[in-house]
Amino acid sequence: MIKTMNINKLFLHVVQACLLLTLPSFVACSHIDENDRLIEVKTDDQQPAPVPDDPSTPTPTSTVKNVLLEDFTGQRCNNCPTGTEVIEQLQEAYPDRLVAVGIHGGPLGFKGSATVKGLATEVGDEYYNHWNLEYQPVGLINRGEATNYVNWVGEVMKEMKQTSVVKMEVEAILNADKIDITVKEEGYDSYNGMLQVWLLEDGIVAMQTMPDGTNNREYIHNHVLRTPVNGTWGESFSINKDEKKNQHLTQAVDADWDASKLSIVAFVYSGTGVEQVVKAVVK
């Protein structure tokens, strides 16, 4: 059962953040309408299963759609910790359906120095520039329009109500110094797009500029994008109705990563947005 989010607590965070907000004047806080509040959404497990032996039982035409939130963030971004709090609240409400990815790069990203660890990457810069983003933190929710974090709750909830024609699973197993990854898809209808696989790391202790302007050197960064597994933009993907597919990929483990805190995110997308996304911890 999906837990109901404490909207009052989240709204307090948003109001506090707006007092500190240094973004362009077009960004404004607003009260979260009742229609945008977190609601209970049934998962696959709660839906009645079809009886395959009964020819009168219709086969499913869609499945539950998960939500990908790409958080374009930076260690020099003083509003980014507040955006992270919004993500944490959403993850608490939707632990199995919201997949957040922290993409470090852009003008407030930090690639590190001789004494301070940096998390920004070249691919993070490429994504930031590709989407023509103008400030941080900013999010892409299922690859929709760039959205300020004060509006993430409402946009995530809209996507939670959608369905998908692709069902996905991902499994990742650590084998010595490499990760063996299996991605599985099932088509409820035909779909053409791209398959993207990313590697993330949790629990990274590194510097972060805080809302009060101070630098916290013991800040814990989670769901940090470390590297794409199958190229910056993934690989071509298509599936037909009732078809099942598997892909097998391998990712080397960098010496700077903590292998016990890695996870894999896999999603399919096209020009209309993300169709489905799944995540699995590396075992």
Please render the helix and strand layout as text:
Blueprint: H1 7-20, E1 63-64, E2 67-73, H2 80-93, E3 98-104, H3 122-130, E4 138-141, E5 147-148, H4 152-160, E6 163-164, E7 166-175, E8 178-187, E9 191-201, E10 204-205, E11 208-209, E12 215-216, E13 220-221, E14 224-228, E15 235-239, E16 244-252, E17 262-270, E18 273-281
Parallel strand pairs: 2-3
Antiparallel strand pairs: 1-6, 2-4, 4-5, 7-8, 8-16, 9-14, 9-15, 9-17, 10-13, 11-12, 17-18
Q: Mean of residue pLDDT?
A: 86
What percent of residues are in strands?
Answer: 35-45%
List unreliable stretches of 5+ residues: 1-32, 34-56
- Beta strand count: 18
Assembly state (oligomeric): single chain
Structural class: alpha+beta
Return the string of H and E elements: HEEHEHEEHEEEEEEEEEEEEE
What is the percent of helical residues?
A: 10-25%
N→C terminal distance: 25 Å
Biggest β-sheet description:
5 strands, antiparallel
**What Rg, in angstroms, do the CA atoms define?**
19 Å
Number of helices: 4
Overview of this protein structure:
- The protein has 283 residues and is an alpha+beta fold.
- The protein contains four helices and 18 strands.
- The strands form six sheets. Strands 9, 14, 15, 17 and 18 form a five-stranded antiparallel sheet that branches. A four-stranded mixed sheet has the order 3-2-4-5. A three-stranded antiparallel sheet has the order 7-8-16, with no helix packed on it.
- Strand 11 and strand 12 form a beta hairpin.
- Helix 1 runs antiparallel to helix 2.
- The longest helix has 14 residues.
- The chain is globular, with a radius of gyration of 19 Å.
- The N terminus is likely disordered.
